[in-house]
Amino acid sequence: MSEPAQWAAPWTAVVMGAVAALGLGAWAVAATDPPGRLLVGLAALAVLAVTAVGALARPRLQVDDAGLALRGITGTRRWPWEHIDAVRVVRMRRMGLPAAYLEVEARDGAADAEPTDRLLVLGRLELGTDPVDVAESLQRHRARAGRRAAGRPDLEGEHPQDVEDDEHRGDPPDGPETGPRM
User: Fold this and answer.
1) How far apart are CA 6 and CA 69, in angstroms?
2) Is the pTM of this model over 0.70?
3) 62 by DSSP, 3-state: which?
């Protein structure tokens, strides 16, 4: 049985968010022009809302042998590993800076109901660590759960590159392609 793993926003970021919300709130109260007061007040409320999610939704993401749990303000949603279709890291540039996001494709619903697809997207700030490391841990837990379901014992010393992705099962390995060149 493997240890559960969990990730949450770092407390330093939560405290900095609270300080920023208080500063913006004080600025909104001290502002003399009504449009400025409104805009800064809305910014203070937005920063306060994000800070509240970081403080109250802890741990944000948790995995164990049973599946994956995502915690929010209203509660925790759980998905068993059988309902997790894909785990991947998406890299992109945001405002000119490289960014990585963890994407998890999950299905909601019971066996007798029509499943609802969900795309969970979590960034570095929500996880408190690099999304690549979180994806590797999720893949390891998912692979262990699959081996247990198939009746195979856990393998000691497994590596993330040994974990086979379901969507690539049966695909030939990458290599030189055969056929005529155009």
Assistant:
1) 9
2) no
3) strand
pLDDT tens-place string over residues 13-31: 999 999 999 999 999 999 9
Per-10-residue mean pLDDT, the chain, length 182 = 78 95 96 94 95 91 90 90 91 89 86 77 91 91 76 51 45 46 45
Cα separation, 180 vs 182, in Å, equals 7
Residues in CB range of 49: below 8 A, 6 or more apart: none
Which residue in 125, 123, 131 sits closest to 88, CA to CA?
131
- Give me the residue label for tokens 């299905």: 107
Interatomic CA distance for residues 26 and 9, integer angstroms: 25
DSSP reduced 3-state for 61: strand
Instruction: Give the dihedral of Cα atoms 119, 61, 56, 16; nearest 10 deg.
Output: -90
Evaluate whether 61 touches 125 at the Cβ level (below 8 Å).
Answer: no
Strands 97-108, 116-123: pairing is antiparallel
Q: Which residues pair with 61 in a beta bridge?
A: 7, 70
Secondary structure in 3-state letters for 67-131: EEEEECCCCEEEEEHHHEEEEEEEEEEECCEEEEEEEEEEEECCCCCCCEEEEEEEEHHHHCCCH
- C-alpha 70/C-alpha 102 separation (Å) is 13
